[in-house]
């Protein structure tokens, strides 16, 4: 059974940090580019970051560049997103998924983890 289990969300004050994790199982994680995609309340999905299958080339949306860092540990079958200097507009459900920025049909999605940035 394929699983992408996202975790690490929560309530944080503006300027704070969180680290999201996405644990993969049931498929060959090391062969997939991976992405983080978020959906804010009342808005559509927004791609924010991806990384190549080997974990060597990260890509970021302008909205998070310089604040977020994506990493991929193929030995642990886990994707990470370090989020620093969080802003209220970062409030969203964060999903991990296979594929890169322009992937239209993603093979697998995680269940999402909620990040709330509020004082």
Global geometry: globular
What Rg is obtained from the alpha carbons, in whole angstroms? Answer: 13 Å
Largest sheet: 6 strands, mixed
Structural class: mainly beta
- Strand order, largest beta sheet: 2-10-9-4-5-6
Terminal residue distance: 39 Å
Helix content: under 10%
How many E strands? Answer: 10
Oligomer: single chain
Question: Which whole number gives the mean pLDDT?
Answer: 97
| Number of continuous helical runs | 0
Question: Keyphrases for this structure?
Answer:
119 residues; mainly beta; 10 strands; globular
Describe the structure.
Strand 7 and strand 8 form a beta hairpin. Helices cover 0% and strands 47% of the residues. The chain contains no helices and ten strands. Strands 2-10-9-4-5-6 form a six-stranded mixed β-sheet, with no helix packed on it. It has a four-stranded antiparallel β-sheet with strand order 1-3-8-7, with no helix packed on it. It has 119 residues and is mostly beta strands.
Give the helix/strand layout.
Layout: E1 3-7, E2 10-12, E3 18-25, E4 34-39, E5 45-51, E6 58-60, E7 68-73, E8 78-83, E9 92-98, E10 113-117
Parallel strand pairs: 2-10
Antiparallel strand pairs: 1-3, 3-8, 4-5, 4-9, 5-6, 7-8, 9-10
């Amino acid at each position: 059974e394929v699983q992408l289990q996202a975790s690490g969300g929560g309530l944080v004050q503006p300027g704070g940090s969180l680290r999201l994790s996405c644990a993969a199982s049931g498929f060959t994680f090391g062969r997939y580019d991976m992405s983080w995609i978020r959906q804010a309340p009342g808005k559509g999905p927004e791609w924010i970051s991806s990384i190549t299958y080997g974990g060597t080339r990260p890509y970021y949306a302008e909205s998070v560049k310089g604040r977020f860092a994506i990493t991929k540990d193929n030995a642990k079958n886990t994707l990470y997103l370090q989020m620093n200097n969080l802003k209220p507009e970062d409030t969203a459900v964060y999903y991990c998924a296979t594929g890169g920025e322009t992937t239209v049909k993603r093979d697998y999605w995680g269940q999402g983890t909620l990040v709330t940035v509020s004082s």
